[in-house]
User: What shape does this take?
Amino acid sequence: METSQPKIKRPLTRWFLGGMGFIFFVAMNMFLHNHGGAGLSIPYNQMVWAGIAFVISVGIVEACRQGTWRYSNLTLLLFGCCVLLTIPLFYPHSTFEDASSRIGALWAGWLLFSSLQQFKFSLAQRESLLWFILLCAIIQAGLGWVQHLIFEQENPMGYNVASGRPYGMFQQVNVMASFMATGLILSGYLLARKTVYKGRWAWKLIPIILTPVLTIPLILTINSFTGYLGTIIGGLLIVPFLWIFCSKKKLVAWSVSCLLGIAIGMSWVQVETSNREFRTASDIEANARTYIYPQVAKMFLTKPISGYGYGNFGIEYLKETAQWYQNNDFDDPGLLGLTHPHNELLFWSVEGGIVALVGLMLAALFVFQRVLQAKRGTKLSLIGLFFPIVLHTQTEFPFYHSAIPFVVFIIFIFWVDNLTCRYKNYEIEFPLPFKIMGTVFPSFVIIYMVTGFYSAHWMTKFELSMNTDYLKRVINPVVWGDRIEVNTFAYTLMRGANENNTDMLEEYLAWATKSAQRRPWPQLYQNMIAVTFVLGDVAAAEQLWDEAQYLYPRYKFAWPDSEDGTTINIERVAM
Assistant: This one.
């Protein structure tokens, strides 16, 4: 009697790779006009996160279909690091609602890494993940060229031609620069992988050879120190790999492309020398990091165990630096409106204390150990792949500006781990609950992000016109919660000021007083001073004035005109 064998189910590899392709080629390029910001305030990030949720769902479903969860030692080690980084969220002084999205993104990164491991990719399929990144970089470079050479002042993206600093879809020039550096280094890495280029696959050399000539001019014209450093050091790290594993003909062609890119970039720089001086001077306080980092380091040393609580950096930094400036501990007050210290390690450490610091350091150590286990001659090249993004996380906050560098970072971790690890299998005895979780929760995230993307259009139209009819079309107010609140009360203030409506002004003042406890931005104080003065409470206005000057000693607050107390100069509150 023959025993029935369990039927092997065809893996969902194409669905997974299709989802990754959607992230890099579709979601990344879905542009909507917006008023900037970071995270989900940038509409395309919402679609990228929808794509991430989809591929995570496919990975979970795949594990359930096969009945086993594939993992490596690094999977478990990074899981432990994520647990350490999550613990401070439950400290009593943490602000859960302000930090929960960051912790959610952290765990989504681990799930994405683990989902990648559920598939037994062929070499070509595994390398296609790197090709997605490279082709995405080429697309963004092409868009950067269009912005720099073709766009006029009135253009579909609202790109400021006068700035002369292309940003592709990223809306932040330094993120664009580090992504171009990543694409450049990745092109060298793929060039040296001989197994890819045999006969009929020679066409793959074309985008690789074109990458330097497309990316280097943008890196030069953007004039980003982070971009320069990431390109130079990352490039030097990839050179030994190219020298050992790349044929002379391909190496010469790639090198010529690099030289051509430098020549084009230098010609752009020479043409715009006068504009470059203006752009550099207009950057966000070029030397700000020289005093931000010592201030934030002192914050960590002040509360090294408990930290200041997740979600509290902005307000605590403002309070501490104001006090230190008054006591002459520092020559400079805190940087205006700083919500992130432009260093990811400091950010988590100051908010989460020693537990968060240990979690991050261990994660970095575990990944670095994987790199050290790679074959001889490849270690430096793998470090080079990571370098532009990792460097950028220590000088700004690229993962918050754009979800794409975060996805790239996770793929690189998977790539390194896959080169060195031995996978283990854990049998899933009860797959149904996991399958339900793997479909319901990501589906909820996808719906949340897609409706948020749709709502972004109407939010922008409302912010431009202050026509409340547009708010009725925002079908997902949750994702825009703070922004809707700020704009709604801005409308209340505008009407109250124009109509001299005391009730509206008092309503705005009550909201602003409460909001200032979490986000005491200077524009908010300016409005509160003016409203309090108009309502006739001069003593309270003076108290607010003193408080505002204490928190922002270098911000020029305007005192209301005593001859015409009904006039309010409304300041737009930053988000």
In short: The chain has a mean pLDDT of 87. The chain has 21 helices and two strands. The two ends are 71 Å apart (CA to CA). Strands lie at 68-71, 424-427.
